[in-house]
Specification:
The complex is a heterodimer of chains A (326) and B (351). Chain A is α/β, with parallel strands linked by helices and 326 residues long. Chain A has ten helices and twelve strands. In chain A, strand 11 and strand 12 form a beta hairpin. In chain A, helix 3 crosses helix 4 and helix 3 runs parallel beside helix 5. The longest helix of chain A is centred in the middle third of the chain and has 18 residues. The radius of gyration of chain A is 21 Å and the shape is globular. In chain A, 42% of the residues are buried. Chain B is an all-alpha fold. In chain B, 73% of the residues lie in helices and 1% in strands. In chain B, strand 1 and strand 2 form a beta hairpin. Chain B is globular. Chain B starts with a helix and ends in an 11-residue tail after the last helix. The chains are: A alpha/beta (326), B mainly alpha (351). At the A-B interface, helix 2 and helix 3 of A face helix 10 and helix 11 of B.
Chain lengths: 326, 351
Amino acid sequence: MALLTVENLTKIFTVGKDEDLIAVNNVSFTLERGETLGLVGESGSGKTTVGRCVLRLIEPTEGRIALGNQEISELDPAGLRALRARMQLVFQDPFGSLNPRLTVYQTVDEPLALHGVGRADRRPRVGAMLERVGLSTDVFNYYPADLTASEQQRVGIARALVTEPEFVVLDEPTSMLDPSARAEILDLLKAIQSETETAYIFISHDLTSVAKISHRIAIMYLGHIVEHAPTDIIMESQRHPYSRALLSAVLFPDPHRRPDPYVIEGEIPTAINPKPECPLYGRCPIREDACREAVPPLVEVEAVHYSACRRWDDVAASMADARGAA
Amino acid sequence: MRLALYIGRRFLFLIPQVFLISFITFVLVRLLPGDPARLSLGPLAPESSVEALRAKMYLDRPIPEQYVIWLENAFQGDLGESWVNNTEVIDDLVHRIPVTLELIFLSLLVVFLVLVPLAIITASRTRNWIVRVFQNLTFGYGMLAGALPDFLLGLVLIFFLFAGAAGLMPAEILPGPEGRLGILDFEPPFVTGSILIDSLIAGDMEIFWSGFMHLIMPVFTLAFVYGAPIFKMLRSQMEGALKADYTTYAEAVGLAPRIVLTRAARVAAGPTLVITGVVVMFLLGGAVLVERVFNYVGLGQYAINGIVTADYAPIQGFVCFAAIFTMLVYLAVDLIHFAMDPRIKIGGTQG
C-alpha cells in the first residue's frame, strides 16, 4: 500500500459572486515510502495549493487524502494535530518561515515538545538533528536573523524532520538560495532520505532541482496534472505539449545536448470559472476540436507514463522528428 | 545588575540633553518678538520704568549670563516666575502636569482596553460573523479617526450632547464641558494632583464620581482620535504576523490556535509600543485643543499661553519638563521592549 494516497483532490476558492477559482482540479497521485515526487509548474499552476491541501493547512473542497490507512481528509482538528508529527512542511522563504523570536534550538525543540516528548529525551534528539543538517553547536542559541539563508533553511529542514515524519512537503525549499547553497541543500535532503526513508513532495518551478532529487515528476498546469512519469523517462521524452514546451525551455549544462525549442504562445490563463475543456486548449499548437469537449483524463499512454493529452502520440512523433533532424 | 547599570547610563545621558535643550529654548524664546517688560507695563508707561523692569527681569544682561542665573535658581527648585500670572512656575507645573498626565494615561487605558482587543480580533483570519461586524465597524473608524481633528470631535460631541435644543444628554447623567469638576464641587486636597486619586485619598466618593464623569468626554475624544495610529499599527502588524510563513508552520506543527495568536501578538507588539510612545509624547502638548474645548487647565494650555504672552519662564519650564518626560517615556518603551523581545540584549551591541 502506498504511504500517501491522494485521490481526486479539488480546491475551489470563491473569489467573487459566481466566480470560482479552481486552484486544484481533480488531482490524484500516490507517494511511496522513501520516494520523492516532484511537483512542477508555473506560478499559479496550483502546486503549492496541492501541498497545503495534502497537509490540510488548506481545507480541500473535494477529494480523499490518506496517510497509510489513516484518512487525513476526514480527521477532526484534534486528530489532525496529533497526526502533525507524521507529516511536515519546509517553506520557500527560510527567514519568513522561522519565528524571529525563537532561537535555533528552541525552533527545533518545539515540535518535539508539542508532540509530548519529555525534556530529557528531546535534548539529544534536537542536538543530533541540528548536527545532521550541518549546523554546529555554536549557532544553537542564535536567532534566525543571525544566520545565512542556507543556515536558516537547514534549521527549517531540521525542524521539519526532527519528529521523524513519514512525509515532508518541500515547498520550493531551494528557490531563494544561491546555486551552491541550493546544491548543498538538495544533497542533504537526498542523504537524509536514504537514511530515514522519509518521503518527499518536492514542489518547484526549477526543473533542474526537481530532476536532481525526484524519483517521479508530475507536471501541473492550471490546477491539473497534465503529465506524470518517472524522472528519467519524462526528462527524455514528454507526451504532452505543455511539458514538452516547459522542458525545452530548460538549459542543461551538457554540451552534447541539442537545443530543441518548442514554444507555446501566450500566458497561463485564469483559473476562474474554467470551461470544461483541455486546460491548454487556448494555447495548444496541436489542438483539435475534440479537445474542447471535455477535460482529457490522465491516462497511462506508455508504461508508467501518464499524459492528459489526446494527441500524445503526435507529441512523441514530433519529438522523434526533432531528434532526427538534429 | 545589568539592567540597573543600563538605566543608570540612560539617566546619565539625560543630563547633558536636558542642559542642551534648556539652553536652546532659553535662547529661542528670547528671540521671540515682543518685549516682556513693555507688554507687562502697557504702551503708555514711560521708557524709564520699562528700563527699570527690564533690569529687574535681568533682560538687560547678555543671554549667557541670564541663563546662568536661571540655571542657579533652577538648581534650587526655582524655575522663575510667570510675569503674566505672578505665580511660581514650579507651582504651576506641579498643579498642571497631573491634569494632563491623568488625561493621557486614562486615554491610553481606554485604547488598551478597547482598541487593542479590537485590533487583534479584526486582524484574525477566522471569518465568522462577529469578526465581520467588527471589521466593518473598525474600517469606518480607521477612516474617520485618521481624518478628524481632535478638537472638532470634541466640539461635535459637545454640540450634540449639550448644546441648546440639540442637547440630548441631561446634565445629571453626563456633565457638560465645565472643566474637571462641577461648578459647586470643591477640589480635593492636593496630594498627587489627579482628581481621581486625590478624591479617593480624601475618601470623598462624590467628588471622585464627579471627576470621573467629567473625564469621560475628553478621554473618549483623545482615545478616539489618538488611538487610531496605535490601532492601525497593531492591526497591520498582526495581519502581517498571521500571514507569515512561521504562522503557517505553527499551524502545521500543531500549535493550539490560541498560542498561534499570542505569538503573533508578541511579534506585533514591538512596533505598536514604539508608536504608543510617540503618541504619549505628542499628547503632552498636543492635547491642548481638547483641553481648551473641555475647559481643562492642563499643561498644553499653560505652554501656549506662555508663548502668546511672551512669558518666558513658563515656556522654559514646560520645555524642560517635556524633555525629561519624553526621555523617560523612551526609556520605558525600551525597557518594555527588552522584556518582551528576547532578541534584544540589554547593553548589547545593538544598544
